[in-house]
Amino acid sequence: ANAAFARVNLSASKATKSRRAIDLKINQIAWTGDTANKITGFLNNPNISEYTLPTGASGKTTFASKTEAEILKDITGFLQTIADATNEVEQANTLLLAPNAYAHLATTRLADSDRTLLEFVRQVNPNLTRIMKVGELKGSANDGSDMMVAGYFDPDYIKLEIPERFEQKPAERRNLETVINCTASVAGVTVAIPMAFVKAKGC
After folding, report:
1. CA-to-CA distance for 180 and 186, rounded, in angstroms?
2. CA 41, CA 56: separation in Å to the nearest integer?
């Protein structure tokens, strides 16, 4: 981010905007990487397993098009991928869903029950400490469909490498302007424990 003013210092509000712009860019790189600079993000990390959602009776893979039983079977199979790949050593502690998938689970009640699908998923998967809606998963698949992710999210397992989070450089005079550069550096996402994460598209 670069802010320039005629004969004045970078204001606090401009510094805040610069910091926010950098944070948004870092977040985008964290999820999808930066191909031009050969930086790997989370969703394109080779250590993330892929799960193929089966089509339901409707012929589609989205949760909104499936029955309750089909959705629960999908989520069970999705989470079990990690346990199977690691011989039951690893279990997901986090399930991340695109907004539409999360909303469907949160608002759809099980037949003959006052519990929602989301509540049931929490109950039958006690290892899941977090089930979260993540806007970055909306339309993030290579075919433009929504995605979901599960894994054991812990700093020892996965880390976003940020050598420099934010630095505001000293002011420089350039012609009639005062320029203050704000910089950051990010090295991408490192997955230390292969097979402890899984992703799926089309939810």
Report:
1. 20
2. 31
Confidence (pLDDT) at 13: 67
CB 56 within 8 A of CB 66: yes
Residue at 108: amino acid letter: T
Please state, in angstroms and rounded to a whole number, the distance separating the CA atoms of residues 47 and 193: 8
- Which one, of 159, 188, 203, lies nearest residue 44 by Cα? 188
Instruction: Outline where DSSP puts E strands in 12-89.
Output: 49-50
Distance CA 7, CA 193 (A): 52
Question: CA-CA distance, 128 to 149, in Å (whole number)?
Answer: 12
Q: Please, are residues 91 and 128 in contact by the beta-carbon 8 Å criterion?
A: no
Report pTM.
0.82
pLDDT value of residue 145? 97
Does residue 178 surpass a pLDDT of 70? no
> What is residue 112's DSSP assignment?
T
CA distance 56 to 170: 59
Contact of 78 with 148, CB cutoff 8 Å? yes
